[in-house]
């Protein structure tokens, strides 16, 4: 376990109010509390931990100084000169005594904490022992100053009793010197700015009535500027001047409005900003002014809102509200990559564009280095990098919050699985499911002993729709369903590629001998398998969606229709396993039968397709539950680019039983192969 403990103790603040006021006495009593945070190893979590330490140190520093000033006022009237300054208190304090006033100690250890979804995190804890009012002030300070983060999240806050307090071994704590906090300038006893902005800093930067308005030089450094209007007035050495920063932002805004597109460089990233949609590998990237505006244009769940507002500022895949899809450059399923300003310079630029020109968003695109590329108008760097890949897109799990990258890793499923290893343990096994739009499906059991991978479901799907319709005709009441469907959708049935005999039987409603000649479903399936060896086969389960698209003549893909659905539940599509010979297979005609039935009942396309995706997730959840009951397998790893569709991702997380550990791909990649992701 990696644990950070900040011990803040000041019995001098135990100032009881009048003895006849019990409520006031309770409010000012001494408490011991622990505040816990979970974090994953990353640049942003490291920055947040440093900021949290510094904020805690500054809080204690200010509290001690305030107390000393109060004490001086009291003892001066009594000619009492035994008060100590802040430095003496820190140097002379007894680190081994829990009752010593004004002590602060830090300790850390690591511990993996398993969650239902993915993975593991480390623990960061703050231990505060102080007056209850002081603790409230401390909590308020953190809530007002500490930014949200994807990699560093608040977990719990609880009071501990005296018995638990005695367990803490102060003698083993490493001392922490407040005087060396990077936020404290002891020469002038003032609070210095961090290399990353706090929530309060960000509010001040865009508040024209604040003294720190436009003051971004503590957070970004200007390296070069190629705007004539700016260079006539300032050079880059003047960047610390607020007036210089104002002129720079105004010059950038004017260039953007005049040229429609501008190129900037931040750290090692070259990017373009534009006022019209730009092609960025087939996707539209949009930067909104703030979360309020993003919510106005997009359909966002709580996890997506948190991701947008986080200090990492990732681009996340989100669905546009239909009326705004075209203007935002949404794809056929109305999706875009949405983000908020990822640094202070962009924050000022977007706020200026909105306040003076009514622009709520601008478009973003990566620029690949080329000898013909225009020179960037502005080159700058962040004083502390917290996100090394600003242009990478993510999709966000709603609950619990987790985000997956639009990225691939390795050239085979084995490389991807090895990058997301099974938790060590004797006899340990897990279920592996790969659902990809571009790679074969996999349903395996992975074991640490013996044969490592064992296939539990063979996907061998005929891509000939007519074969499945013929099998469906032989199901109980299948002929009647097909005839009723044909009466209302004769044009669709004509596109199925059926032979003339079967087509005539379906259209006329004759359930004669084509059905009777099949002794059983199993014999029907085996016979068709033997006689259709020439038919094109697929080992990708997602190709069942293509058959549905052909059967219903959908003008866009099934997954795109599902993504447009705004409801929480769809019709239940029947994914069922059956035994054929010695094999266990999915009953594909049964899936098609469900789709035909609901289509015939008038279910809208978006909802029907959503039901197909939702039911697939529920099928996998049921399969995982069976693996737990029958084989004791309590872990499942799911990968593949189907996870990059929100409609499937949210449902698969919900469908996996909570007593099974769900592992999703780590930040290396969500699927394998270096091919472009099929997201359009």
Describe the protein in words.
The chain is of the alpha+beta class. The protein has three domains: 28-59 and 102-178, 2-Layer Sandwich (Alpha-Beta Plaits); 199-397, DHBP synthase, CATH 3.90.870; 407-463 and 536-679, 2-Layer Sandwich (Nucleotidyltransferase, domain 5), CATH 3.30.420.40. Helices cover 36% and strands 20% of the residues. The chain has 23 helices and 29 strands. The strands form seven sheets. Strands 10, 11, 12, 13, 14, 15, 16, 17, 18, 19 and 20 form an eleven-stranded mixed beta sheet that branches. Strands 1, 2, 4, 5 and 6 form a five-stranded mixed beta sheet that branches. Helix 23 (646-655) links the parallel strand 28 (635-639) and strand 29. The protein is globular, with a radius of gyration of 31 Å. It starts with 6 loop residues before the first strand and ends in a 17-residue tail after the last strand. Residues 8-26, 79-106, 184-192, 515-522, 529-533 and 676-680 have low confidence and may be disordered. This is Protein hydE. It comes from Helicobacter muridarum.
């Amino acid at each position: 376990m990696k644990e950070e403990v900040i011990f803040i103790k000041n019995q001098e603040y135990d100032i009881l109010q009048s003895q006849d006021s019990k409520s006031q006495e309770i409010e000012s009593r001494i408490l011991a509390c622990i505040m816990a945070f979970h974090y994953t190893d990353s640049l942003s979590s490291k920055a947040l931990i440093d900021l949290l330490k510094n904020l805690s140190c500054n809080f204690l520093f200010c509290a001690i100084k305030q107390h000393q000033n109060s004490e001086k006022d009291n003892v001066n009237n009594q000619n009492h000169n035994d008060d100590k300054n802040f430095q003496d208190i820190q140097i002379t304090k007894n680190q081994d005594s829990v009752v010593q006033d004004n002590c602060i100690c830090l300790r850390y250890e690591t511990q993996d904490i398993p969650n239902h979804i993915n993975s593991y995190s480390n623990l960061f804890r703050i231990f505060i022992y102080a007056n209850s009012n002081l603790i409230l002030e401390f909590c308020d300070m953190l809530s007002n100053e500490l930014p949200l983060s994807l990699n560093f999240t608040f977990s719990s806050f609880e009071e501990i009793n005296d018995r638990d307090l005695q367990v803490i071994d102060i003698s083993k704590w490493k001392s922490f010197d407040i005087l060396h906090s990077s936020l404290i300038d002891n020469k002038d006893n003032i609070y210095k700015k961090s290399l990353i902005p706090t929530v309060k800093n960000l509010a001040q930067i865009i508040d024209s009535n604040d003294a720190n308005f436009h003051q971004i030089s503590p957070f970004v450094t200007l390296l070069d500027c190629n705007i004539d209007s700016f260079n006539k007035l300032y050079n880059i050495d003047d960047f610390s001047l607020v007036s210089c920063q104002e002129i720079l932002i105004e010059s950038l805004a004017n260039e953007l409005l005049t040229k429609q597109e501008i190129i900037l460089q931040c750290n090692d990233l070259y990017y373009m900003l534009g006022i019209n949609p730009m092609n960025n590998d087939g996707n539209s990237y949009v930067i909104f002014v703030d979360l309020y505006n993003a919510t106005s244009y997009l359909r966002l769940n709580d996890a997506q809102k948190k991701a947008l507002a986080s200090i990492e500022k990732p681009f996340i895949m989100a669905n546009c509200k239909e009326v705004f899809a075209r203007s935002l450059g949404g794809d056929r399923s109305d999706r875009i990559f949405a983000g908020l300003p990822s640094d202070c310079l962009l924050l000022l630029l977007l706020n200026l564009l909105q306040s003076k020109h009514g622009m709520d968003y601008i478009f973003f695109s990566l620029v690949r280095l080329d000898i013909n590329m225009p020179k960037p108008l502005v080159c700058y760097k962040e004083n502390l990098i917290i996100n090394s890949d600003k242009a990478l897109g993510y999709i966000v799990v709603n609950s619990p919050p987790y985000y997956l990258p639009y990225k691939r890793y390795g050239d085979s499923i084995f490389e991807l699985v090895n990058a997301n290893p099974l938790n060590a343990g004797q006899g340990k096994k897990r279920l592996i499911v790969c659902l990809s739009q571009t790679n074969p499906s996999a349903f395996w059991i992975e074991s640490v002993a013996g044969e490592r991978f064992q296939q539990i479901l063979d996907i061998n799907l005929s891509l000939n729709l007519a074969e499945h319709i013929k099998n469906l005709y032989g199901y109980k009441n299948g002929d009647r369903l097909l005839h009723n469907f044909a009466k209302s959708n004769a044009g669709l049935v004509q596109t199925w590629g059926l032979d003339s005999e079967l087509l005539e039987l379906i259209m006329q409603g004759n359930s004669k001998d084509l059905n009777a000649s099949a002794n059983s479903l199993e014999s029907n399936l085996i016979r068709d398998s033997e006689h259709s060896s020439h038919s094109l086969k697929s080992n990708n389960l997602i190709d069942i969606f293509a058959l549905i698209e052909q059967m219903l003549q959908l003008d866009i893909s099934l997954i795109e229709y599902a993504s447009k659905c705004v409801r929480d539940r769809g019709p239940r599509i029947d994914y069922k396993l059956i035994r054929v010979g010695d094999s266990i297979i999915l009953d594909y005609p049964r899936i098609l039968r469900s789709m035909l039935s609901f289509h015939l009942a008038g279910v809208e396309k978006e909802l029907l397709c959503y039901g197909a995706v939702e039911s697939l997730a529920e099928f996998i959840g049921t399969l995982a539950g069976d693996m737990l009951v029958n084989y004791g397998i309590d872990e499942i790893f799911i990968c593949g680019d189907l996870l990059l569709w929100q409609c499937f991702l949210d449902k698969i997380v919900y469908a996996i039983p909570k007593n099974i550990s769900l592992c999703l791909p780590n930040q290396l990649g969500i699927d394998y192969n270096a091919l472009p992701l099929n997201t359009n």
